[in-house]
Specification:
Layout (H helix, E strand, L loop, with lengths): L7 H49 L5 H83 L8
Helix pairs in contact: 1-2
């Protein structure tokens, strides 16, 4: 007899859910990484522009200075917005991670149940095989020694 786990369809469903949640988590991580890269690029641009402004301040005319300071203000606002986007993405990533962990726990419960039922099935199967062998040996012994067990 072959082992059959009655809850295999449920286990397969939970595995699919776990894979979907893993994909969601991967997308959330990718979004977070993209947001962090954008924020880092904006920070780098702002720092480079500030350094250039300090180095070449005397060489700039009034219009260039005004445009540079205006652009620095824009970069500061964009950095704040990018930081908020990073925070939102980090929160979404954490929610996706929690959902993935929950799905993994749900699947693991069924995996453990399946394994325990398999072990119980194998034990019962080996005990049934042993009983069958014992019965065969008893019949063979009775045939070989037909009068040994009878009262005199």
């Amino acid at each position: 007899m072959k082992f059959r786990f009655r809850l295999d369809p449920v286990l397969m469903h939970r595995e699919r859910v776990e894979h979907e949640r893993a994909a969601e988590h991967g997308r959330a991580l990718a979004d977070q990484l993209t947001a962090e890269q954008l924020r880092d690029r904006l920070l780098s641009n702002r720092d480079e522009l500030r350094e250039r402004l300090v180095r070449e301040h005397a060489a700039f005319d009034a219009e260039t200075l005004r445009a540079t300071y205006t652009h620095l203000d824009y970069l500061d606002r964009a950095i704040v917005a990018a930081g908020q986007r990073v925070d939102a993405c980090a929160a979404a990533t954490e929610r996706a991670r929690a959902r993935l962990v929950d799905a993994a726990k749900d699947r693991k419960v069924l995996d453990t149940l399946k394994e325990r039922r398999r072990e119980a099935f194998e034990l019962e199967s080996s005990l049934a095989d042993q009983r069958e062998l014992d019965d065969q040996n008893a019949r063979l012994f009775d045939r070989a020694h037909p009068f040994e067990g009878l009262p005199s």
